[in-house]
From TrEMBL:
This is Subtilisin. It comes from Halolamina pelagica. The lineage of its organism: Archaea, Methanobacteriati, Methanobacteriota, Stenosarchaea group, Halobacteria. Belongs to the peptidase S8 family. The active site is at D130, H180, S334. Residues 121-368 form the Peptidase S8/S53 domain.
């Protein structure tokens, strides 16, 4: 039962950095000597192909369409460009993997300031209690540690309400067959690896505790067992981007058990907004930090639940993060929650206890002018929580 987040706009993987060089681009290079250059040549007919092959010092590749890649003397390029049977001559440029981006939410809470100062969560253990984590995503795999499934991982069959399971192979029982858990994991702790996105923490260990099935649903008992498991492993943070309007005594007991064992628990406040006094469970339990969601203009996201249990706000509207097979933008308090989980991981990596983390996050939150029932202490400020000045960033 994750919060109702909508996914849009899966990102492309490549972008052009060196465009095709058009006809005439090599004009005037004959004087540069007889060095060879690798080019792509498009031809109109067999005469054009023959002229290209004759000029080539080496044919590197022939395509099934009317083009080839070859190495050719710079002195021969001008003649090929002028040949009416040759459509184009272009330098064989390159394309690169899409550069890593800093999602707006990470920028807003100043995660990058902490990273620049060496605070990346190294040594912390962050458990994502959700639909699992994609075990082979390039932005996650280096940080993924142990995992355990309390529900089965499946990729076949549909879900009620038209929910479509993720296109992901279950290499492990705790793999993500929904998208939701991987998206939250990336927000909390995506690797800083020059591609894709970056998380609030970047080097903490992520643990997949699969308590929600491919349809995004899990029983009170499954979720309680997952919380208990996190506590018994001695992990630092339990991130719960899930909830419902009904309380569960078993889940309440599990959260108390984990809290008493030193786990910092954080949960999404819920997506029932606009509303008042409507924070869901487990976020409403006093052992759990409840997180509301903001938009990029620092307004309260219109879907965010509010109430006296809200302790802190974090970005949750149109957040880009990891999903099986790529990246996507989701919105929800589910997206706000792991921002806080990642920050907690950084603090606990530095030796803070779960209660110290809670106090620090509250005491350093930024006042953005929202009511206390909307944002609690204010907007998460990762840099300030770690003792850095982010006022100019």
């Amino acid at each position: 039962m994750p919060e109702d987040d909508s996914g849009t706009k899966r990102r492309t993987v490549l972008k052009a950095t060196s465009g095709a060089v058009g006809a005439g681009a090599f004009s005037g290079l004959a004087s540069a000597g007889d060095a060879t250059v690798e080019v792509n040549v498009g031809y109109e007919n067999d005469r054009g192909r023959g002229a290209a092959v004759e000029a080539a010092s080496e044919v590197v590749r022939e395509f099934n369409f009317d083009a080839l890649t070859m190495r050719v003397s710079r002195n021969a390029i001008e003649g090929l460009e002028k040949n009416p049977d040759v459509r184009y001559v272009e330098e064989n440029g390159t394309m690169e993997a899409l550069a890593q981006s800093l999602p707006w939410g990470q920028d807003r809470v100043d995660s990058e300031v902490a990273h620049a100062n060496g605070d990346t969560g190294d040594g912390a253990d962050i458990a994502v209690l959700d639909t699992g984590i994609d075990s082979d995503h390039p932005d996650l795999t280096a940080n993924v540690g142990a995992g355990k499934a309390f529900v089965s991982c499946e990729t076949k069959g549909g879900c009620r309400y038209g929910v479509k399971p993720a296109d992901n192979t279950c290499y492990n029982s705790w793999d993500d067959d929904n998208d939701h858990g991987s998206h939250c994991a990336g927000i909390a702790d995506a690797v800083d690896n020059s591609q894709g996105v970056v998380g609030t923490s970047t080097t903490a260990t992520l643990h997949a505790v699969k308590v929600l099935d491919k349809c995004g649903s899990g029983s009170f008992s499954d979720i309680a067992a997952g919380v208990e498991y996190v506590a018994d492993q001695g992990w630092d943070v339990g991130s719960m981007s899930l909830g419902g309007s009904s309380s569960s005594s078993a889940l309440r007991d599990a959260c108390q058990y984990a809290h008493d064992k030193g786990v910092f628990l954080v949960a999404a406040a819920g997506n029932s907004g606009p509303c008042t006094d409507c924070v869901g469970y487990p976020a409403a339990y006093d052992t759990v930090m409840a997180v509301s969601a903001t938009s990029s203009d620092d307004s309260l996201a219109d879907f965010s639940s509010t109430g006296p249990e809200v302790e802190i706000a974090a970005p949750g509207d149109t957040i880009n993060s990891t999903v099986p097979g790529g990246y996507s933008e989701f919105s929800g308090t589910s997206m706000a929650c792991p921002h806080v989980a990642g920050a907690a991981g950084q603090l606990m990596a530095n030796g803070a206890t779960n209660t110290e983390v809670r106090d620090t996050l509250n005491n350093t939150a930024e006042d953005i002018g929202l009511g206390s029932n909307e944002s609690g202490s204010g907007l998460l400020d990762v840099a300030a929580a770690l003792g850095y000045d982010s006022s100019d960033n």
